Amino acid sequence: MGLCSRYAPACSSWTLTLVLTGLFYGFPCLYLAQTHSMSAHIIYDGILFFFVIANFTVATVIDPGRYPRASDDEAVDDQRSPLHQNININGVTVRMKWCTTCMFYRPPRCSHCSICNYCVDTFDHHCPWVNNCIGSRNYKYFFTYLVSLTAHMLSVLAFCIFSLHLMKMEGESFLQYTPIITICVAVLDSLLMVPVTALLGFHIFLISKGRTTNEQVTGKFKGGHNPFTKGCIRNWAYLCFGSRLPKLVGRKPKKDLLKKVKMVKAAPDKVHVYVDNSSTNGNTSGRAHLYTKV
Ligand SMILES: [Zn+2]
Ligand SMILES: [Zn+2]
């Protein structure tokens, strides 16, 4: 992918956000402030807009949960190695694929992003508008961005309609800059709000079900049980209050980190790893399906 096509969606989303909000503050907001001494709405929407920009920036620049590639001495390309390994989590078989680029078995929910060219923990999707992968470390900021953006767009539309109503009541001509730009902002805002609200609704559904976009679109849980959901309420609690995972690349672990980590031994009947030879001997019959309850 060329640099231009990679950065174009992110540049257009930044431009649209800043230009539309700038026009909103410069015309309908200014009209309400000057003619009706209304400034509370500017403070209210200013706070919303701050959250939009803050979450957009964090979702863009933060490491989404990138896994480091195997180093040269670790990367043993053994042709006899199976392409998959299966792990059993709470009675559900989850297949771990061998990543030929990063040279390791991808942990459950991890996927390789073809645009960023690295494996991402709890990969949701690659968002061209944010120009970053959405994974375990930035999903919360991406979701908060969607929530604050929807609230900001609703607020812009409501104040545009309200100021147009006041202009009409006061008999002002609509052939002036302020009403024309207010109508343009309201129309563009309404059009853009449709996909943003739909995307927010889709992610509310995914969080409630404990799924990622990648799992949903690839139909991983069709007719099976999702081993990663904690239940609707706990999924939301984890999103809101769960701590962010540490960075996996570009940072050396502290020497005394292991001393602080409380090692928890998994019960042997809960989790076990075994080799899946189905891909090497060509016989797939009778094998457990991916993410299907066994
Ligand atoms: Zn990879
Ligand atoms: Zn990516």
Automatic annotation (TrEMBL):
Q: Which GO terms describe its cellular component?
A: membrane
Indicate yes or no for the key word DNA repair. no
Residues spanning the membrane: 42-62, 142-167, 179-206
Tagged with keyword Transmembrane helix: yes
Instruction: Report the superkingdom from the record.
Output: Eukaryota
Pfam families xrefs: DHHC (PF01529)
Q: Where does the protein end up?
A: Membrane
Q: What EC number(s) is this enzyme filed under?
A: 2.3.1.225
Topology in membrane:
Multi-pass membrane protein
An example molecular function term from Gene Ontology annotations: protein-cysteine S-palmitoyltransferase activity
Q: What class of enzyme is it?
A: transferase
Swiss-Prot/TrEMBL catalytic activity: L-cysteinyl-[protein] + hexadecanoyl-CoA = S-hexadecanoyl-L-cysteinyl-[protein] + CoA
Where the record annotates domain Palmitoyltransferase DHHC, the positions are: 95-218
Q: Which UniProt keywords apply?
A: Acyltransferase, Membrane, Transferase, Transmembrane, Transmembrane helix
The family note in this entry says:
Belongs to the DHHC palmitoyltransferase family. ERF2/ZDHHC9 subfamily.
Alphabetical list of PANTHER family matching this protein: ANKYRIN REPEAT AND LEM DOMAIN-CONTAINING PROTEIN 2 (PTHR12349), PALMITOYLTRANSFERASE ZDHHC8 (PTHR12349:SF2)
| Record comment regarding domains | The DHHC domain is required for palmitoyltransferase activity.
> Could you identify this protein by its name?
Palmitoyltransferase
